Batch of 3 targets.
Target 1
Amino acid sequence: MDCPICLDEFENSVFSLNCGHVFHRQCIQPLVNERTRNVCCPICRRTSIFSFHTHYIREVFFTTTVNSASSSPISTSTNESLILSPSSEETVSESVHHEALTDLRRQNQRLQDENADARTALESASEREANLRSTILELRRNLGTTRTQLEASKAKHTKWKKRAKELEVEVMKEIDNADDALRERDEMKREVRKMRKEVEVAQAEAEAAIRTTARMMKQAAPRRGRNTWVAVDNTRSDDDSEVAIANSDSDSDSGSTSDASVRIESKNARHTGANNAVTGRYRVASIASNPNSRPKKEKKRELEYGRNIRCVSNRRPRDPDRQGVPKCTDKEGHNFSGKGSNQYQKKYNCSSCGIKISERV
């Protein structure tokens, strides 16, 4: 019989616990609690009181195999060693072997149960592992798909972000263009208003010139057989030349009327002298009524109306040797003042440059 702790055969110092398990004394003594003097059986985990009495061995080994009458007396005093006969040693050995075999069977059964439980747990773990592996494979496939979708989403995000920037730039350009268009519209409105005012002014001046021309022609119409005075309006002329149309009446003897003649006079030719320095005037041209008669010297006379008087001090005469018109110091034009009047005309004099203008009544 062997010790369950050291697995050596029993020779001396056999020690038994309350549960009946037998060990070497030197094997079981280190397991004793020094404070409580209790020991836990390494086999059955039952707590026993550690002592050196031998009645436990008698209860285990001699209860069923040894008669109390034929048995030799055994001392129960403390620290008394157990003395066995040869036949008793054999019986004790068989009992110990039987007890050890029983313990081994119990251990084997327990191990088998534990093995069965471990196999069941292993099968369950294998099933869970298989399920986890399939789940992992499915997750890996989903991960690959998700990564592909993520890359596509990133590409779309980059594309739309770039498109958003382009649209933002286009919107800013459109806003700038709209601002420019609004400014151009406002500028065009101002130009239209300005042109409208100019057209209204030109229309008013043209109407005034027409009325003046009609009045002058009406006044000159009764004078038959004489040179006819025709007014030429050059206030708003945009061409480089002016056209003066003269109507001539027929001679008093013949009673016939000749055709109208056209005379083209250059603008610059009127600015060669001091008397021709004012624009916006009406020039009266004398044309002979009879083309075959002796040419007479052309009579010219300056006519000036209030709002048509303008300063021409910056203009130069065509002949550089001749003296130009004195520069007028007034920003708005000549500073005319009434000098006097008579039955036929009103006279004006510029206090800045000294030019004299007369207006027919």
Target 2
Amino acid sequence: MLWEEIDIVVNVAALTLYERYDVSLNINTLGAKHVLEFAKHAQKSRCFPSYVAGVKEGIILEKPFHFGEALNKDLYLDIEGELRLVEDRKKELREQNSTIEAEKIAMKELGIQRARMYGWPNTYVFTKAMGEMLLGHLRGDMPLVIMRPTIITSIYKDSLPVFVEKVLRVQPNVKKLFLLVRAGDAKLATERMQNEVFAKELFDVLKEKHGKDFDSFISKTVYSVAGDIIYENLGIEDCNLREMLWEEIDIVVNVAATTNFYERYDVSLNINTLGAKHVLEFAKQCTKVKMLLHVSTAYVAGVKEGIILEKPFHFGEALNKDLYLDIEGELRLVEDRKKELREQNSTIEAEKIAMKELGIQRARMYGWPNTYVFTKAMGEMLLGHLRGDMPLVIMRPTIITSVYKDSLPGWIEGARTIDSIILGYAKGDISCILGDPEVVSDLIPGDMVVNAMISAITAHSNQHSEFIYQVSSSLRNLVKYSTIEKCVYQYFVKNPQTRSDGKEIKANKFHFIRTMPIFHRYMLLHYRLPLEGLRLMNLFLFGLFTQQFNTYWKKYKFVIHLADIYAPYTFFKGSFDDANLERLRKAMMNNVEMKLFDFDPKHIEWDDYLINIHIPGVIKYLLK
């Protein structure tokens, strides 16, 4: 039924954290492939609309990856080899009887290692890049649009409510929306859809529009499907349901991903790499499919300077040009490592740690900074390599922030990047930040990313090619970290926060620390040494200061954690080329309806947006 009815496939699924390499590969890389394969089965599919450029300086162009292309030009990125590597590593861990926690850690470290080895800064953008490669390689004649938003401030599911709300509000004649929900059965999938999508304040405008008929409208238009992109056929076990989907679906959209920068390598591979593949394979079964849209990340490009082009990865291309990225080898590595851990009777925690370490190790070996971007890059590679004639669009956003205008300004779900800094500042936990205040923070509001996705679907349905769009602001309307710091300070001076004991938290300006050696020296002198003194005093006084020590130690570890995660981006000197997106904007200018889908960053006045929309939204929706 889905293959017969679906005409537009949009993939925004992704894990955007420093995720396990296996999970990131499955969602961001293989997930893109699976969405494409599904879209190919949709008989009416017109278009498949998908962030992955890495860390570069200058203008980053809107160009697709060649299959196997790594940002480290000395390496070839073999996506199949990366998948094998993960499986081999997991096998090793199991043979070592590693704990689940140890496997998780090993998978995260492997993702980071592989990402950085190939030239990407983290597992997320690496696996998203591989997802784009798979889409470009496998799409065949499937019309494809790849959206590349900038830094995502929310978990991958954040894009889904905004996308669904926009489609239902401005495209009331849409026949059906099928939402793949990770759930054990249809009942649980429906409950999750109701609780995690339609129960949100974001849908209040739509509820007011339809009044008492809202529930009826939703039940006739939106259908939840229990499944998971880490499995073939998206984990849809009901063969009759699969056949129906393959007959009705015409547009496949993949937004699934794990965005954890330090995710377990096995988890990150499963979600970000294999997940892209599974989506592509499913899309190919859709008899009416018009396109597959896969949401990746602009940071699959790795850590670079200058202009970063909108180009696809070559299959097996690593950012480290001395290496070839064998995705199958990465999968085998993960399984072998997990087998080793199990044979060693490792604890779950030990396996988790080992998997995280493996992800980081493999990502950095291949040139990516973390497991997330590494596995996302492999997902792109699989999509480009396996798409065939599937129309494929890969969207690469940069840092996605709260809704700018439509329909609930400030709405956001899930803290990422600058939001973690805002929340830490609001709680009085952060006084210094590692980074250059003159570096550009490539922000893009979530509703602009969604508008670009919908525009790409409109423009690219039934075009049997691969398109990559980097959705960013760094070229056309840049905002620096110094501007963000100024706005955060101004907001909290006027809107001071209070601690749990009722005491007011004083607003102070950030202290930027511009190099890692200075940062570590600063943290040692101002925090680590005083904490060691407090720890010794606590021992002599039989635990009298245990609570105080734990509180300050937690704050210290939090700052170190933020520095480790975001240093590649707070020193990022690249700019993302968005020439493709600009051409799309110009093409849509004469379309009256497309005025509802603004995605021009020039329209943003950053001080006003940050002080009056984004920061209040972060405080309202994210501060616990």
Target 3
Amino acid sequence: MNTPTAISLDAYIRSVAACLAPGGSKQFIGRQNLLPLFRLAVPDLIQVNNDYFTKDEAIVRLTYLLNFEGLAAELDWRTKDGQLEELIVDDTHRQKLAAMTAYSDAANQRDTVLNTYVRSLAAGFALTDHGQFIGRKKLIPLCSKFLPDYVTFEESGFSLSRVEIVTQLTFLLDNGLAAELDWRARDWELEELIKYPSHRQYSIAAQEATTAGIPLRNSAIETYAKSLAAAFALGVNGQFIGRRKLVPLCDKFLPDRVNLENGYSCSKGEILSSLTTMLNCGAGGLAADLDARAKDGRLDDLIKYPSHRQKLEVAKKLAVEEAIRRQTVDKNSSVASERTPTPSVALSNTTASSTTPSEPTKEGTPTSSVALSNTTAPSPTPSEPNKSCLDTALPFDIQHAILPTLQCFLEEGCHAYLSKHHPQVLLAKGWSMPESAELNLYAQEIQPLLPAATGPRFKSLSVIRHTAVHRIPVSSTRLLELIDDAAHACGYLATSGAYSSVCGNPQQAVMAEKVLTLKEEVLKWMEKRAEDGQKQEKMKQKITSLMDTKRNIEMEIARLTALMEDKRYIEMEIAGLEAQIANNGEEERKAIRNFKVDVKRALLSDVPDLVDQKELRTGVLQQSLRKPQEDEWEGW
């Protein structure tokens, strides 16, 4: 092998590596592929500057250059910039580099033609009659049937087999082409991928069929959306749950893709968009229709799918159970009120006091013999919550359920009081039922008639009404204060007038008991909420501890990985040093052999001067004494 005389082993290795480095798309083939090619390219014995090196020595040196001298990075950027020829030191290597570059360019051009044809073929067959992506499972067999055994491209001169095209199509579909075809089919942008007339003809036929089926598909989407809305429209109270709650429920139920009637399919987003549009159509929209159907029990007419019908049946059962439960509660409360002749009214911060004779008022109605502002019959009060429970705010839906209930209780109590003691006020105002007037209007009429109603607790009735009507969030402490004020107001109404008359009609006292029961339930809820908050806090602390442990483990893994990488490089460096040591040992053994030859030559020729190296190292002497016999040296 002819090589220049003024190069080193490293320059020779770099030259060979440079001619083997080019890969596809002007990329470096990588050190893992370069080493096997280098082993095949170099001979077993390499001569550089009259020195001989074995193939193993060259491979060890190449490994060292790639890993520790930056040769891999240099080959990478030189391959991208086309500057590999600067490393070539031999004409043979330069010819190999030109051949590798030409082969790489041809392979790149062939890959470009193959990818373009495959993408065009897939785009031509990707659209179904319903305007949807056909799917990778159906696309591959369809393209395989369309393809001939070989496809020839006249412009470039390449020829591709059907197996090669189908293999590349499968690879591209698994690496993003399927998703691209899906969104291009929805956005009508498949035409941008089609580059061949035969593919375009099939795509045009599919688009024409899709255009004719768009109205049918939209109708199928609306039918599914209505059926889904009807399945989730019924609440526990037997009423329509409202469009604000309906859309999130449908979103949780829907999968990512939905199969519709007549073979159509659509995404979750299309169904939710159609459902939102129909719900926001005002009085004549889907929301009003669902409300009316929920009241009349006609939601079944909109159901078109079995899964939706099952969901509606479950909602109906829950509504029936809730109605039975409410009837049972109302019945038990009415029976308890009939069995209690003198219901106790719990009023906080009150004590018993002496009675005084009754005096007629301006209207002629006797006042109570009990001082209303400071005295009532004592009764047990619910246990007070701890401070942490009071500081915990209730969810707004719970507050909104409590305050309107208090408002209804107080309106019923005020109406019953006026109907019992001052019916002329109801006749003058035309209030025939408790719902005829709001709570603040009742309070304005009662305050002049009931002197005890001028206190701050009775005045908070207007606050209860204002907070309930305008949905104003309040703290848990303030909510309990409002409940206490409502209980006191019911107590005022229950102890007003002749006490015997109250016993005959204990409706106000029953309202007070209901208010106190409501307060007990609120306190229980707040205590449970506080316990849940403590549990959640403990769980958060545990999660934080586990995350810290996980982070420490990940850092330890990263440190161990770095140590393993250092170990690998050290082992490679040790291998390189051992190879150098072996090379040095070989040179030393060679020098010893030459010295033995010199000694033998001196003994046989009776030449005392052993330092005459020029005479002893002639080619003739080395040829004649290259293989001395061991038995000749044993005696010597």
